[in-house]
Amino acid sequence: MKIPPRDLFLLTLSGLYFFVFGNWILSLTSPDEGRNAYAALHMLETGNFLVPYYNCEYRFAKPPLLYWLTALSFSLFGVNEFAARLVSGLAALGTALLVYLLVRDFVSRERALTGALVFTLLVHTWFEARALVPEMLLVFFSTLGVYLFLKGRKVWGWAALGLAFLTKGPVGVGLPLLVLFFWKLAQLRRPKETLLWTLRLLDPKGILVFLLVGFWWYAAMLHHFGWEYFYRFFVWENLGRLTGKLSEHNYPLWYYLPFLLLSTVLFWPVLYGAVRKVKENLPPFAWFTAVFAFYTLARSKLHHYLLFSYPGLAAFLAPFVGRGYLRAAALSGVLLLALLLLGAKAYEEQRFTPKAVSVLKEEKPERLYFYRVENSALVFYLYRCIPFLERPSEAEPGSWIVTDEKGLRAFKNYEVVVKGREFEGEQFLIVLRGDD
Questions:
Q1: Which helix (H) or strand (E) holds 314?
Q2: For residue 161, what are the CA distances in angstroms to 6, 171, 211, 307, 326?
Q3: Hey, CA dihedral for 224, 381, 32, 91, is it positive or negative?
Q4: H/E element holding 418?
Q5: How many DSSP H helices and E strands does the chain contain?
Q6: Residue stretches of the chain with pLDDT short of 50
Q7: Do residues 402 and 356 make contact, with C-beta atoms less than 8 angstroms apart?
Q8: Among residues 168, 53, 436, 136, which one has the least CA distance to residue 303?
Q9: DSSP designation for 62
Q10: Can you give the pLDDT at residue 436?
Q11: In angstroms, what CA-CA distances link 369 with 376, 379, 385, 386, 435?
Q12: Which pairs count as long-range contacts for 319-322, CB under 8 Å and 24+ apart, including other chains?
């Protein structure tokens, strides 16, 4: 698994630039980053690393591995944006190294560096590597599992899937196995032999390692919370998203196409020729297609679900990207990312969250509520629970309220203290005044 020092240095340098540099420019965003950061900070502050909390409630939505690693990052680098997002950045860098190994061992030894750099230059990865969400960590462990299984190292492959299971749940096992099946089918072209090969992956020692690595935390949660946890996580969060019963993100079948086109913008001239020669490098294309099709058919869709298709896409494109073109794409990528970071800095100056945090830390209001909106980043930065106001009439004079433009209409006598933009829309911090 060794990588030549020159290639390792180049990949590390490019990974730090494309995946880590400037990850501190934007303050944390809502809802996911704030929730995940608070859960990690709460673990660090309380010493309770078993049960995740957010805003004075149990956080059953996600498993704990991202929280644990973020808490470790906080303890090493302080509680700040760099530390919060570092786990995702390093996971992206690790995935690029895995793509190198994957291409070297199963596609073309001469194209290993090209494949890894193609992954690094997929624009979508730049954003997700700078986000405190579990997707990039999931991609790393899932890709590691696929690589180890293809190398015949079943026990270690199941250990990697155990960590993927601790990162995001069942999808960390099901999708890598799906990818392995279609990779082997593309390689063998015989469904019966492919099915037998896939079934042989169910090695008893490997399954035991998977349970020891990946399932013990779930067992502890089920023991502690019983049916409540089982339903909230396995039924509601996982099965509900797959079937559309949890209807927060139901989008049309073509939803992922714009994200794919934007992500591959640096390789548009290469795509047509590569697809025309798809039979020359079919297994990695099968990886990409399996993941893309799975999430396209799933009822619930989010752009970052697409990330696990990118290692396969990069490995597929590797033989079709010439060195001269790769240098031009890399230079364009450096400039494009620099422009995006400058844009992020300008946007941060208009944002609501940093301005509201500054005011609220100074004022320390006794009564602070959310109405119609939830800004989870405030919960993290203030490290306090912020209840939701069900009815405006319940708020007393002197209450501070975070709301949106429609929410302002529910109040009569108030002062706008802060207003600013967020990705969800404009938000306001108001303080209620007594009747004149």
A1: helix 310-317
A2: 30, 10, 10, 17, 32
A3: negative
A4: strand 414-422
A5: 22, 6
A6: 436
A7: yes
A8: 136
A9: S
A10: 44
A11: 12, 11, 9, 6, 20
A12: 319/107, 319/108, 319/111, 319/114, 319/280, 319/281, 320/270, 320/273, 320/274, 320/277, 320/281, 321/114, 321/118, 321/267, 321/270
Peptide linkage before 31 cis (omega within 30 of 0): yes
**pLDDT at residue number 249:** 64
Question: Got the DSSP string for 122-183?
Answer: -HHHHHHTTS-SSHHHHHHHHHHHHHHHHTT-HHHHHHHHHHHHHHHSTHHHHHHHHHHHHH
* Phi, psi of 382, rounded to the nearest 5 degrees: -85, -15
pTM exceeds 0.90: yes
Tokens representing residue 288 in the block: 């990409």
Phi, psi angle pair for 370, to nearest 5°: -100, 140
pLDDT at 47: 97
Torsion sign across C-alpha atoms 138, 143, 144, 149: positive
Taking alpha carbons only, the member of 141, 198, 212, 130 closest to residue 171 is 141
The vertex-169 CA angle with 310 and 17, nearest 5°, equals 40
To 10 degrees, the CA torsion angle through 324, 326, 328, 329? Answer: 160
Q: Which helix (H) or strand (E) holds 38?
A: helix 32-46
Give the Å distances, CA to CA, from 110 to 21, 76, 147, 323: 29, 38, 18, 11
Q: Which amino acid is at 378?
A: L
Residue entry with tokens 């995940």: 36
Residue 435 CA to residue 420 CA, distance in Å, equals: 27
Classify 429 as helix, strand or coil: strand
Helices (H), 169-265: 171-188, 191-199, 204-210, 216-225, 227-229, 240-243, 256-263
Asked if 60 contacts 53 with a C-beta cutoff of 8 angstroms, the reply is: no
If you search the block for the tokens 């033989």, which residue do you land on?
319
Containing 414, the helix (H) or strand (E) segment is strand 414-422
Q: At what angle do helices 256-263 and 282-297 cross, to 10 degrees?
A: 140
Beta bridge partners of 415: 431
Q: Which of 1, 101, 83, 91 is nearest to 36 (CA)?
A: 83
DSSP 377: H
Instruction: Let me know how long the chain is.
Output: 436
* Cα distance between residue 87 and residue 20, in whole Å: 9
Helix (H, G, I), strand (E, B) or coil at 269: helix
Q: At what angle do helices 268-276 and 310-317 cross, to 10 degrees?
A: 80
- The whole-number pLDDT of residue 61 equals 87
The SS3 of residue 415 is strand
